[in-house]
Amino acid sequence: MPRDVDEKKKRKALRKIRKAAMLAEQGLGPPLSDWEKQFLEEVEERIETYGSAFHDPEKGAADEALSSLQHIKLREIDKKARGKAKSGFGAKGGFKRRTAPRVRQIDEDVEDTSPPPTRSSTPQLVRASDMPSNEPAPTERTPRPKSRPNLKVIKGGADRD
Questions:
Q1: Structural domain of residue 73, as residue ranges?
Q2: Residue 26 domain flag
Q3: Which pLDDT band holds residue 135 (cuts at 50, 70, 90)?
């Protein structure tokens, strides 16, 4: 069942789709993949049949012919067909690092005079009694005598009548 879509927006979307397909055929940019060609054909067919290329109202405005993601993808295909650079993080104007960062090595100023630690090639067994103890020496405490706690009864508490 067709949805009420603004005719102007419908024609505009169809014009963009057809123009992108035409530019891709001219070969100004890299050729479109099979998926991109199929995407353009299916979206054009849905717009002509139903007036809109999407059904779920959460994916775009009700009076639009393309969903927001379809609009973004169509814009990418159009840029690719025109031979323009892809925008984003890896493209020219993105967040690409222009120069190598200046990094200071911490060890540059310090001279190491101690020889590197040596390791024996075979492990050796050591008795537990010969191992140095990492536990602190126990301190002797005098045990407290356990006595019953002193309880006080406060009058006027919850038993008020």
A1: 7-82
A2: yes
A3: low
